[in-house]
């Protein structure tokens, strides 16, 4: 196996320690990551829109396009590989405001709101998040170690390192930033995060 690309409106799960799940080009879309540090199961969903009632027929064919059909699918696939909700760690990234001059059609915000609604209904805690803003993102997770690499593109060069073990539940990834204002190219903010290697017993 190896590097597994999760496309737009796509979902992949793995328990193979050789795998790395990655999704690119997260603008207003949202990526949801699940990691069970005991079963060593990782899942990654990349959804585009908040609600499947926008197009019920398309939701049947492409459930990962929508938050309300994609998130349950991510959970089911991960649980089939041995992950348990009670010990899984959840992270979200994306939901940016892209090329929008007003808030009327802020798809990024609506996507994030849909995520929170779905998690609340399912009794799931969102442990970490990097959402909003105007930067596009690329995110990947290493199945063996539960290590997450997040890259943001912005207007200047940025470098960040974040250790999830030192951040509380629900914290936003907002570390100190070193900016190179003289950079000619789009900024790339590299964030490295580690899921805590917790153990637990299913409820």
Percent of residues in helical segments?
A: 10-25%
Q: What fraction of the residues are assigned to beta strands by DSSP?
A: 25-35%
- In what order do the strands lie side by side in the largest sheet? 2-5-4-6-7-11
CATH class: Alpha Beta
Low-confidence stretches: 156-187, 199-203
In CATH, the architecture is: 2-Layer Sandwich
Main beta sheet, described? 6 strands, mixed
Which overall shape is indicated by the principal axes computed on the Cα atoms?
globular
- Helices and strands: which structural class? alpha+beta
Mean pLDDT: 79
N-end to C-end Cα span: 33 Å
| Secondary-structure element string | EEEEEHHEHEEEEEEE
Helical element count? 3
